[in-house]
């Protein structure tokens, strides 16, 4: 893995418009008081695409419309996104509105409707103010300049405090290939696409089916391994659009440079996922749980997810309290196979538990490790070779403050 | 059910010493600063018993010792309990200490060791200060007076704010039969016995195997349907002791008055469970989620549990924000079968969603319903006849405050 990782380079100033062929825009449509709230990504050509959706049984109207678009020829050329209103539990009217959003976007950019995806995020159960959407879509002026990406990144946020974006590049068939993304997250972030939207662009030449397989498997070790509060939402999705303009030969797992592309996409997803977890509602720290020695990778992922999902672990991390008993409690009901007599636990580099026995440690050093911006919790179950990582955030007074009155 | 419920009477001033044959005591052993922290229940005769334990794979030493005691002849005559230290993840020494606690208690009351159960609750990973335990067990002077029960009720508490106790009576074979209980709860309360101890006494004549079956099935609709923060602990158990001194014929499901006993035990467990949920760490309200119209009772229970377990629902209830979208979000990933087009939701008596469509409601009335001490959320899934109830509490600033520095 080391070698492959070295072949992928982080592009600090890259955004969703860095890959060849993409433009973006964001405007204030008046759905929120002042923040930009309507954004679009447009590709110069129909792009191969892949998407994964929330597993909540209540799927919002825009997801249904997007699925229909993609089903036609597995290509997209634009995605239109609003914040403030989720357009979920809005019945027939909601579906009508999502179709209209798609139509208006298609008309504005001269595209067939089925090449347009629609995404929404915000409050459930209230209908979109369509006059604002109608008046504002024509004002979207996509550009391949940084501005366009920043405006889009802003437009998709809800209670997020910071924009989430990333960009990686690699070389395929001698061509530089770029993968970039923008995302929104915050509360309700848990397994399986939870109030989370991520839009990934790449100029790689990669067929839709290959892209879909890669996205699905990468989602399981990135977006699906983050949690803010254990909830899943009705609206979440990750969309990847591949313009193919980098000029490489079509990618597949048989392609000699496949691993480069896969790794660039994986790092893009992981970096976005970590930014989302770090910016969970009220969060002050990123928690990274690394579980090794599990019976399988799957069980290691469960255990890691339970650690970052535990309110008790999250509050202990907030309070910088080295309460490893709560880590034990969390993995003990994760469903992962555990031998209760041989578990090791570390917080940062400080071992707290060895063979399930407390190890004396300096409370001061432990406190320091828990004051870091990234708190790493490591568990070795010593029952196999399975490994997994999950990311979450601490649980703070501000989480309560934000969520006790979201609608008001 | 109505008829049976009427045959069971709540005894407002009853406690664990109300059923014939039971005495209790509690003292300050110095495990905590000033609060009583060591308690005992003693029966005049060896009592039939039943117990259920945490499903966390890390089971504390006292649970192991208690299981061994009960395995001998399914009878108990005393249970000794300490708070402040959980005696979990304490290795060989912890097991040795739990055995010693059992032995000291057996000696103090002249009992064979296998008639003594041991329970502990508190911090994980620190060994019991055995000098204090040794010095204090002889100071326990059980009595059948109210004092004894109150001292016991106090001794088992950790971060609980109030004592939890209840008592019901019914008539079996013409004899008054009493069932009573004391419990402790607070944080880490979730499915399957989580940092929760409950001790139930009854003077019914009921064999251990019959009692065990009843306890198991009642636990699934009472203690296992409450949640404070989704965690399970290493120490939790519910123990029932039946002295048989009421003088009824031995009970079994074939006994004509069986339903009376079962209902008294069920109400005892449900009342203790609700008190535990209501007193969750930092809680200001009890949340009761009632789900009907599910495919099965099991699925209704999952859905109800997901509602009261959702941090987003819990914070919305705290903020008296009628955010029914979060209720939808919670049931949508509960695993229960749902038709997304036909769900009804009420908060209190106010309908918010009908056939999955928002119903206009008065925000003021909704706020009033959410300011009640008990907030009832009702969901009708309209896909079957399954019903289930779960209880939880709101998530508040104080939960964070309490848990950010539990050890310090």
UniProtKB/TrEMBL annotation, chains A, B:
<comment type="pathway">
    <text>Amino-acid biosynthesis; L-arginine biosynthesis; L-ornithine and N-acetyl-L-glutamate from L-glutamate and N(2)-acetyl-L-ornithine (cyclic): step 1/1.</text>
</comment>
<dbReference type="GO" id="GO:0005737">
    <property type="term" value="C:cytoplasm"/>
</dbReference>
<feature type="binding site">
    <location>
        <position position="403"/>
    </location>
    <ligand>
        <name>substrate</name>
    </ligand>
</feature>
<dbReference type="InterPro" id="IPR042195">
    <property type="entry name" value="ArgJ_beta_C"/>
</dbReference>
<comment type="subunit">
    <text>Heterotetramer of two alpha and two beta chains.</text>
</comment>
<keyword id="KW-0808">Transferase</keyword>
<feature type="site" description="Cleavage; by autolysis">
    <location>
        <begin position="194"/>
        <end position="195"/>
    </location>
</feature>
<feature type="binding site">
    <location>
        <position position="408"/>
    </location>
    <ligand>
        <name>substrate</name>
    </ligand>
</feature>
<feature type="active site" description="Nucleophile">
    <location>
        <position position="195"/>
    </location>
</feature>
<feature type="binding site">
    <location>
        <position position="281"/>
    </location>
    <ligand>
        <name>substrate</name>
    </ligand>
</feature>
<keyword id="KW-0012">Acyltransferase</keyword>
<comment type="similarity">
    <text>Belongs to the ArgJ family.</text>
</comment>
<feature type="site" description="Involved in the stabilization of negative charge on the oxyanion by the formation of the oxyanion hole">
    <location>
        <position position="122"/>
    </location>
</feature>
<dbReference type="GO" id="GO:0004042">
    <property type="term" value="F:L-glutamate N-acetyltransferase activity"/>
</dbReference>
<feature type="binding site">
    <location>
        <position position="158"/>
    </location>
    <ligand>
        <name>substrate</name>
    </ligand>
</feature>
<dbReference type="InterPro" id="IPR002813">
    <property type="entry name" value="Arg_biosynth_ArgJ"/>
</dbReference>
<dbReference type="GO" id="GO:0006526">
    <property type="term" value="P:L-arginine biosynthetic process"/>
</dbReference>
<feature type="site" description="Involved in the stabilization of negative charge on the oxyanion by the formation of the oxyanion hole">
    <location>
        <position position="121"/>
    </location>
</feature>
<keyword id="KW-0963">Cytoplasm</keyword>
<keyword id="KW-0068">Autocatalytic cleavage</keyword>
<protein>
    <recommendedName>
        <fullName>Arginine biosynthesis bifunctional protein ArgJ</fullName>
        <ecNumber>2.3.1.35</ecNumber>
        <ecNumber>2.3.1.1</ecNumber>
    </recommendedName>
</protein>
<keyword id="KW-0511">Multifunctional enzyme</keyword>
<dbReference type="Pfam" id="PF01960">
    <property type="entry name" value="ArgJ"/>
</dbReference>
<dbReference type="InterPro" id="IPR016117">
    <property type="entry name" value="ArgJ-like_dom_sf"/>
</dbReference>
<keyword id="KW-0055">Arginine biosynthesis</keyword>
<feature type="binding site">
    <location>
        <position position="195"/>
    </location>
    <ligand>
        <name>substrate</name>
    </ligand>
</feature>
<feature type="binding site">
    <location>
        <position position="184"/>
    </location>
    <ligand>
        <name>substrate</name>
    </ligand>
</feature>
<dbReference type="GO" id="GO:0004358">
    <property type="term" value="F:L-glutamate N-acetyltransferase activity, acting on acetyl-L-ornithine as donor"/>
</dbReference>
<dbReference type="GO" id="GO:0006592">
    <property type="term" value="P:ornithine biosynthetic process"/>
</dbReference>
<comment type="pathway">
    <text>Amino-acid biosynthesis; L-arginine biosynthesis; N(2)-acetyl-L-ornithine from L-glutamate: step 1/4.</text>
</comment>
<comment type="function">
    <text>Catalyzes two activities which are involved in the cyclic version of arginine biosynthesis: the synthesis of N-acetylglutamate from glutamate and acetyl-CoA as the acetyl donor, and of ornithine by transacetylation between N(2)-acetylornithine and glutamate.</text>
</comment>
<keyword id="KW-0028">Amino-acid biosynthesis</keyword>
């Amino acid at each position: 893995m080391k070698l492959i990782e070295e072949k992928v380079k982080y592009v600090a100033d890259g955004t969703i418009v860095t890959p060849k062929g993409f433009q973006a825009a964001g405007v204030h449509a008046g759905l929120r008081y002042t923040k930009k709230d309507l954004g679009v990504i447009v590709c110069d050509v129909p792009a191969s695409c892949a998407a994964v959706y929330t597993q909540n049984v209540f799927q919002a109207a825009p997801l249904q419309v997007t699925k229909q678009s993609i089903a036609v020829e597995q290509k997209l050329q634009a995605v239109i996104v609003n914040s403030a209103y989720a357009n979920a539990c809005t019945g027939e009217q909601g579906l009508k509105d999502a179709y209209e959003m798609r139509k208006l976007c298609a008309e504005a950019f001269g595209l067939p409707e089925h090449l347009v995806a629609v995404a929404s995020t915000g409050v459930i159960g209230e209908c979109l103010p369509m006059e604002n959407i109608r008046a504002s879509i024509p004002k979207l002026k996509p550009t391949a300049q940084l501005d366009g990406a920043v405006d889009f990144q802003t437009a998709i946020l809800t209670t997020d405090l910071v924009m989430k974006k990333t960009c990686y590049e690699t070389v395929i068939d001698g061509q530089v290939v770029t993968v970039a993304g923008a995302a929104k997250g915050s509360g309700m972030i848990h397994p399986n696409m939870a109030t989370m939207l991520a839009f990934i662009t790449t100029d790689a030449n990669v067929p839709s089916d290959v892209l879909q397989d890669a996205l699905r498997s990468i989602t399981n070790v990135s977006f699906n391994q983050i949690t803010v509060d254990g909830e899943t939402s009705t609206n979440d999705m990750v969309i990847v659009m591949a313009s193919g303009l980098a000029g490489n030969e079509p990618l597949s797992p048989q392609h000699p440079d496949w691993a480069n592309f896969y790794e660039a996409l994986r790092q893009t997803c992981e970096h976005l996922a970590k930014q989302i977890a770090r910016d969970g509602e009220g969060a002050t720290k990123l928690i990274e749980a690394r579980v090794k020695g599990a019976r399988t990778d799957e069980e290691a992922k469960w255990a890691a997810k339970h650690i970052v999902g535990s309110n008790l672990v999250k509050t202990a991390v907030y309070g910088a309290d080295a309460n490893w008993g709560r880590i034990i409690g969390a993995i003990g009901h994760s469903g992962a196979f555990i031998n209760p007599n041989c578990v090791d636990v570390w917080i940062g580099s400080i071992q707290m538990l060895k063979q399930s026995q407390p190890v004396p440690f300096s409370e001061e050093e432990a406190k320091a490790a828990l004051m870091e911006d990234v708190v790493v919790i490591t568990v070795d179950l010593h029952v196999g070779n399975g490994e997994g990582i999950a990311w979450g955030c601490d649980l703070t007074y501000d989480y309560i403050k934000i969520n006790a009155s979201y609608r008001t």
